């Protein structure tokens, strides 16, 4: 997969040199281009923002540097179709980033992240990019970050580890939180007793069916307790609840 990032803080993404994604880059599974938006300005001060039309607090990112940066990254000869690159603008006003969206994006050959700062990017940048690419505004959740950089990092990590070969043991992708719509069950390792806390005996029983049932029950219990919104309707009531008359 090819990933391009446009940002005014390119040094921010040096952490992508290390760990799992660093190795994926070394082995060629992920190809990364980080582009400094200021390199696409044409004035002496390398200006990327200006005051908002209509008034209001804060600054808005100017369209011209974005246009130059995107033109350089996107293949302008391509027509806008199902195989057009995907451009993601991280934004608290976007659709929610989920494991499902991460899975979808992990299958793409090219992703471009446009990191906005200040109060946002001139809307015409999004409109223009939409004529060249499949554009998505994506939010991490209902809170506000200072810019798209941290959100981009989170998305690249979630997407990158779903690319075949990036995570060593593919089975570890199957049993984790959210891959089946439920939160993960609790895990234990040796010793069997630690500071007075014991490992649940069922995990030592060798009874694989009982272990599987216990783990599934734990997933349901956890999900019901903290994320009932994730439960499918048929699991939304406790399984041991008395059937309604
Ligand atoms: Cl994607 N961007 C910003 N600036 N704030 C956010 C966000 C994104 N997701 C949640 N908050």
Concise summary:
The chain is α/β, with parallel strands linked by helices and 245 residues long. Helices cover 29% and strands 17% of the residues. It has helices spanning 19-26, 63-73, 99-106, 123-129, 148-160, 171-174, 208-226; strands spanning 2-7, 31-36, 49-50, 60-61, 86-96, 110-114, 134-139, 193-194, 197-198.
Q: What portion of the residues fall into strands of 2 or more residues? A: 15-25%
- Unreliable stretches (pLDDT < 50, length at least 5) are none
CA radius of gyration = 23 Å
Series of secondary-structure elements, N-terminal to C-terminal: EHEEEHEHEHEHHEEH
Strand order of the largest sheet: 2-1-6-5-7
Mean pLDDT: 92
Distance between the amino and carboxyl termini = 55 Å
What proportion of the residues is helical, as a percent range?
25-40%
Bound molecules: 6-chloroguanine
Q: Structural class of the secondary elements?
A: alpha/beta
Strand tally is 9
Which overall shape is indicated by the principal axes computed on the Cα atoms? Answer: elongated
The number of distinct helices, counting runs of at least 4 residues, comes to 7
The major sheet is characterized as: 5 strands, parallel
